[in-house]
Q: What sequence folds into this?
């Protein structure tokens, strides 16, 4: 009998398998989309790749994205797929597009635009709305193919508005009948394949009309009543952006953990929530982690791998965007704007004038030059030394910080980008973040892929984990490569019940990354206008990803999409 060769064999790889075990040299064989062998001398396959000692990891599982709209028009789901991500979970923070009554489409778009900074015009043009209920939404996704696997959660905001109409949209209290109806919709959605339920309680999340996300002020009877749907099904994660997450109320997080502990015990399901370091109470995160570790709690704080903040550049948010002279040229092509701004008279006029109507974001940039750090074009440093801030450099040179910032924005023909850390950088370093990343209850999240298109691009967090934490960090201890990989693979997959992926072992799904570890690095973020209706977004590419496979099919080669779309909707735990 002639042995049938594997579909794929990757030979001589430095395997970091996702379990946290030490790296080892091995061959990995794949057939039928599954890993069939891990060891030495796997022989030849129908296709054989000699890794030559390159790093081989499981595909990364990103549990915090907002591709709910993009998934209906974009099969590649960049930028996450550019950074080794092979599975994404969307529908976070209580916002999404199902269930969707026909007269609520534009309202749901306004909610997503306000909360997640996704251009409403892009959503209006891009979403085709072939669903009303959440199961129908999943069916619509199931009819599509992707470069990654996708999974969804049922969002509180959409459910509340669907059940309660304007009462729900205005955050009026829910009646017992309202709660019963919301619970039924969530139960139906999770039974159809949603991985859980999400809500938002932070005051920083508002719709485009200024209203808070439906559910922001929901009472415990509503929050627990909906959670009962997960208990009855015995599956699903309860995810939320808690009150005080972004520092709007420094006393809120401890209160939030108290009810989340009771919730997790009552419904016997994991509860996952955003955890960030807040400048006003820089050690509060440590208390939250301690409270989350109680034996009676199933709480899993989501943490990031770098500062949470805004990206400042001439083609997006910057300090002079509301100055009258700049406003007159704001719609000109970038090259023409740069040429005009280089005129000494124009520069003097912009620097001297004050906004006729102040933009709150531009004003915040002007207010904190000590938090502005230029990002290098190659391998930008997300743990910058405070001595390199715009304020510090200006002081050393005897210059006005706004005048220096003006010049920096014009560098590289207007493509220069500055980082403005707002959270996770209270001490001017990432020591606190390292402690969060090593806590046994913490999971990696908060990348927000698909969201915050105008001033954040954190979907590249996996590359930061590899390049900064496992290799390059020089302002404090690094993290072991095996720990870094485990956080992005087995740990995130396990939280959401995706037990068929996240490790390199026989029988597991063949989602894999082949990486030149010495070369893996971020590039500087850049602006693109590639969303529907010409919508603008910030994107960030990476170097060093030699190959990415989804179910054994190569989706990326040297950072470029191969055209293959093996990814599908994932329904429920696997």
A:
């Amino acid at each position: 009998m002639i042995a049938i060769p594997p579909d794929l064999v990757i030979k001589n790889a430095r395997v970091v398998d996702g379990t946290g075990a030490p790296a080892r040299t091995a061959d990995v064989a794949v057939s039928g989309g599954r890993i069939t062998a891990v060891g030495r001398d796997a022989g030849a396959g129908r296709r054989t790749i000699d890794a030559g000692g390159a790093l081989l990891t499981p595909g990364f599982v990103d549990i915090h994205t907002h591709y709910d709209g993009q998934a209906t028009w974009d099969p590649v789901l960049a930028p996450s797929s550019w950074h080794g991500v092979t599975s994404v979970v969307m529908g976070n923070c209580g916002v999404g597009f199902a269930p969707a009554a026909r007269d609520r489409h534009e309202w749901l778009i306004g909610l997503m635009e306000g909360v997640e900074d996704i251009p409403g015009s892009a959503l209006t043009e891009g979403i085709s709305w072939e669903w009303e209920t959440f199961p129908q939404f999943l069916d619509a996704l199931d009819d599509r193919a992707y470069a990654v696997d996708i999974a969804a959660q049922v969002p509180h905001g959409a459910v509340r508005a669907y059940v309660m109409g304007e009462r729900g949209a205005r955050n009026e209290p829910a009646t017992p009948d309202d709660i019963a109806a919301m619970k039924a919709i969530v139960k139906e959605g999770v039974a159809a394949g949603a991985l859980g339920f999400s809500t938002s309680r932070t005051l920083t999340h508002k719709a485009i009309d200024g209203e808070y996300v439906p559910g922001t002020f929901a009472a415990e009877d509503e929050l627990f009543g909906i959670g009962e749907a997960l208990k009855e099904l015995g599956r699903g994660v309860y995810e939320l952006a808690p009150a005080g997450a972004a520092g709007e109320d420094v006393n809120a997080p401890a209160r939030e953990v108290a009810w989340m502990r009771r919730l997790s015990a009552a419904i016997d399901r994991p509860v996952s929530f955003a955890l960030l370091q807040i400048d006003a109470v820089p050690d509060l995160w440590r208390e939250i982690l301690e409270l989350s570790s109680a034996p009676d709690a199933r709480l899993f704080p989501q943490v990031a791998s770098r500062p949470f903040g805004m990206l400042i550049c001439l083609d997006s948010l910057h300090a002079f965007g509301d100055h009258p002279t700049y406003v007159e040229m704001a719609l000109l092509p970038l090259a023409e704007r740069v040429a005009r701004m280089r005129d000494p008279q124009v520069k003097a006029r912009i620097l001297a004038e004050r906004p006729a109507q102040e933009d709150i974001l531009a004003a915040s940039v002007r207010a904190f030059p000590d938090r502005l750090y230029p990002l290098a074009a190659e391998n930008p440093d997300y743990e910058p030394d405070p001595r390199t801030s715009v304020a510090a450099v200006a002081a050393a040179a005897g210059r006005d910080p706004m005048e220096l910032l003006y010049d920096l924005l014009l560098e590289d023909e207007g493509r220069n980008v500055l980082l403005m850390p707002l959270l996770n950088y209270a001490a001017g370093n990432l020591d606190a973040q390292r402690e969060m990343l090593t806590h046994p209850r913490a999971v990696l999240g908060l990348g927000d892929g698909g969201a915050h298109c105008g001033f954040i691009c954190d979907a590249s967090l996996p590359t930061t984990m590899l390049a900064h934490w496992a290799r390059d960090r020089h302002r404090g201890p690094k993290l072991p490569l095996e720990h870094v990989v485990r956080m992005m693979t087995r740990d995130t997959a396990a939280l959401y019940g995706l037990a068929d992926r996240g490790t390199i072992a026989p029988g597991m799904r063949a989602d894999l990354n082949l990486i030149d570890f010495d070369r893996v690095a971020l590039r500087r973020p850049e602006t693109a206008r590639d969303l529907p209706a010409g919508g603008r977004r910030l994107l960030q590419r990476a170097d060093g990803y030699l190959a990415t496979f989804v179910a054994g099919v190569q989706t990326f080669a040297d950072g470029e999409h191969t055209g293959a779309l093996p990814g599908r909707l994932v329904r429920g735990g696997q």
Notes: The mean pLDDT is 96.
